[in-house]
Amino acid sequence: MTETDIAIIGGGAAGLSAAIYAARAGFIPYLFENVYMGGQIANTDIIENYPAMGIISGYDLIEGFISHLKKFEYNLRNAEIFEISPEKVIKTSKGDYKAKAVIIATGARPRKLEVAGEESGGVSYCAVCDGNFYRKKTVAVIGGGNTAIHDALFLSRICEKVYLIHRRGEFRGNIAPLRELPNVALVTDTILTSINGGKKVSSITIQNVQTKEVRDIQADGVFAAVGTLPNTEFIRNLGITDGNGAIITDECMRTSIGGIFAAGDVRRTPLRQIITAAADGAVAATYACAGIEG
Ligand code: NAP
What does pTM read for this prediction? Predict the structure, then answer.
């Protein structure tokens, strides 16, 4: 079993920030990433709210995080994590590790729509990844938060027509930029009830929750943007999550188990942004390192 001072699980904004802070504190952290570095940022078109960066692409922002970390010594392991024990033994697809401190920064994944037709393959959970497949076509974006609004804006530049379908009358985010766009239709107080046509979507069925009116609208694709679920299935044994699967921490990012910390979208937090994830990573690494030093 490989022994290390500090292990960081996840290579998004929180994990990369934690690794930078741990390395600057004189440790050589192990950073575990299963797929690719960057997490959800890598799938984000344009970021406008990371201070001092102005308007920057997700790709460029994450490249900045990674090149910053590369100035320091660290160990990257591309491995899947199967389990973490309360004793901080980490079982991975590349062997077992024992750490003095673990920072869980595995982020979150898109929530599913859970409507008929979703599983037949015609639904995308990433407008930036798949938008181009719908060039000059008609698509529906489902959701009323910032992701849905950003996705609708992004798709309005590619698609002929974009329906933004939200279950309530008020949006969570700022829809002002969408209001002036001739090819975007805001459909409020409306739920999606089915996606029709199989892998090649032909239409969707929607229902107005006030009038109960049901109608079909022609659509070639559906983009789900109804929030996220924390990636915590592999640590459910630890009993540190809430009813939604988010890890509960204190303000120092400590969980209820000594030496186990959480940072970013994976934890219960009132704001899930890149800056809050990065800040969480900094706090978690600072207190994790302090705990190791004694
Ligand atoms: P979110 O803010 O949680 O919004 C999810 C939306 O989906 C809500 O409007 C919700 O409706 C709707 N919804 C949830 N379950 C649904 C269902 N089963 N059927 C239909 N609609 C459903 O999620 P998000 O938009 O992914 O954003 C997550 C966090 O990232 C937020 O803090 C957001 O501000 C942030 N973010 C920021 C930016 C930015 O650039 N500032 C960009 C993207 C995301 P209700 O409103 O009725 O609950």
Answer: 0.82
